């Protein structure tokens, strides 16, 4: 009788389960080191999420030290200028909560257009309007406007149409000591024009208000009307004050 060959079966040994990684608790770090770590987090995340973690994180996010560290990391000419501006126009209380520099870093109000929906790319959103004739509409520009975020424009009708927008400069990232320092320049710029077969009249009024809506300063422009049968001319108005 022949011997039967035995078959060897390899035993299956289950792979060991990896040990769960221990989460790094940043709250155990010394505040000085945690401040440096947080300075690499985007400003909006600091204000919207990190500030909600615990009281210790909130105190760091609300401190001027964190935001000055963030500003100091930008070595460009603009960054150095912003850091110098922030240092020289700090709030009277260095322990003010929350620190206004947080919104300043998040909103970056210096050097950008603070007007919302300036060219009508979102229709009449953010504008308070008073319609005359057939009212306001938004159309494509007939003449290219250099530097505009959108080649669209607000168009009026055959009667006076008005639109207004109110900006809260503190909500945009500025604060009273900075506004009162005389070291920043507020610029207002606008383009206006007429169809080739229709004349038009244009008025511009800009008012600087305090918290009680009292007018602190104002500027008005009343340029000469554009006559009928023009060449689709577009005119530019620019004003500024400190």
From TrEMBL:
Residues in FBA domain copies: 104-242
Keyword check for Membrane: no
Region feature (Disordered): 1-23
Regions crossing the membrane: none
GO biological process, one term: glycoprotein catabolic process
InterPro entries reported in the protein's UniProt record: F-box-assoc_dom (IPR007397), F-box-like_dom_sf (IPR036047), F-box_dom (IPR001810), F-box_only (IPR039752), Galactose-bd-like_sf (IPR008979)
Protein name according to UniProt: F-box only protein 27 isoform X2
Keywords on record: Ubl conjugation pathway
GO terms, molecular function: ubiquitin protein ligase activity
Species whose genome carries this gene: Sapajus apella
């Amino acid at each position: 009788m022949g011997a039967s060959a035995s078959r060897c079966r390899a035993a299956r040994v289950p792979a060991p389960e990896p040990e769960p990684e221990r989460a790094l608790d940043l709250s155990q770090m010394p505040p000085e080191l945690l401040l440096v770590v947080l300075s690499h987090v985007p400003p909006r995340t600091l204000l919207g999420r990190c500030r909600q973690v615990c009281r210790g994180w909130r105190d760091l996010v609300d401190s001027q030290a964190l935001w000055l560290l963030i500003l100091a990391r930008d070595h460009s000419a603009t960054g150095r200028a912003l850091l110098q501006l922030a240092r020289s126009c700090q709030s009277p209380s260095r322990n003010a909560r929350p620190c206004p520099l947080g919104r300043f870093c998040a909103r970056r109000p210096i050097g950008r257009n603070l007007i919302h929906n300036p060219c009508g790319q979102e229709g009449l959103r953010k504008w308070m309007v008073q319609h005359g004739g057939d009212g306001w509409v938004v159309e494509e520009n007939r003449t290219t406007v250099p530097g505009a975020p959108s080649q669209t424009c607000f168009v009026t009708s055959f009667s006076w149409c008005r639109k207004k927008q109110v900006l809260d400069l503190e909500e945009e990232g500025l604060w009273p000591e900075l506004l009162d320092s005389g070291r920043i320049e507020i610029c207002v710029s606008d383009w206006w024009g007429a169809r080739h077969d229709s004349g038009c009249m244009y008025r511009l009024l800009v008012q600087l208000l305090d918290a009680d809506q009292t007018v602190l300063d104002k500027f008005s422009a009343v340029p000469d009307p554009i006559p009928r049968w023009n060449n689709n001319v577009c005119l530019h108005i620019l004003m500024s004050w400190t």
